[in-house]
Design brief:
Structural class: mainly alpha
Mean pLDDT: 87
Number of strands: 0
Oligomer: single chain
Low-confidence stretches: 4-18, 257-261
Radius of gyration: 33 Å
Distance between the termini: 116 Å
Number of helices: 17
Length: 351
Amino acid sequence: NVTSSSKQSLMVSSLIKMDNEITDQDLIFEENVLQNPYVEDVWDKYIQFLVSTTNSSSTKLLTIHERAVKANPKSRNLWLRYLRWRMNALKTASTLTSPLDEELEQQYNKLNLVFERCIANMESPGDFEIWELYIKSLWQDQCSVTKTRRACDRALQSLDITEHSKFWSSLYLPFIRSSDKIPIETACRVYRRYVQFEPQHVEEYISFLKNRGRVAESSQRLVEILNDETFVSLLNKSKHQMWLELCDLITKNVNNTSVNNTEDGKKINVSAILRTAIKKFTDEVGKLWASLADYYIRRGLFEKARDIYEEGLESVMTVRDFSLIFDAYAAFEENVLSSKMMQEEEEEEEE
């Protein structure tokens, strides 16, 4: 016992010589970790003591955290405590310096290496909380699009399939939607993978496409769910509502360069879609005929628009639909006439 006690005293003495920051208050904790280096709770109490002590330097805390995880490389709690402490320290430093500060960037690179060591040492690399911290650091603190996307892909490979839905909804998709700096093609590829995993959430992807001006693919996705008799809208939309949404989308975005470029390179047949809707929904035929004519007006095909108005007036069965088409037709001709008169006046002024 005497010999063992002497050895421990010598170890403590040598440790004090190596690190002059160790105080008298630290000695009890140092003796405990030397006696029980593989007991997680001993390190945890030591770290908590240092964090609560105002005069503990960051270098000292860094050293103790490193010693703790090296002695207990499988300890999830010690790694999490270390990672959170290091993230908080860098967040504090980032408020005091320029976002482009090279030294701060180097410190974040070191933090990323700590995350990699942690993941490599875990018995299960699919720890949701650790991946969540890593990805949020890359995304929110470091603003690295490429690193974040790659980390998300790796996380999906590591996580249990039961956690994929939570990962997509709480991390990957919010990241994809968070910034216009993410290339639209990259964002779409990620969303397509999500729809393969959660096909019932396709309306979420359609909304994303519409917001990003991807009219063709959003239209194509709407056509697909309208042709799927088993599809049930999570937004409680009826087939009727989705048809009207599709018609409105394709007729009001004629000038969008992507309207005729779908994901698989096929053309969108606007006329066929509108005519199918006219056959399906007899209570909306007036509005749909007017929408089809408006589509050709926006394309500058005025004669074709007149043909559509005439066809609609001849085919409708109710006074309401006839009046709707007639009013739209009259407004169109009035606008054409006004434009011609203005053009003639401008030509006369030039002469």
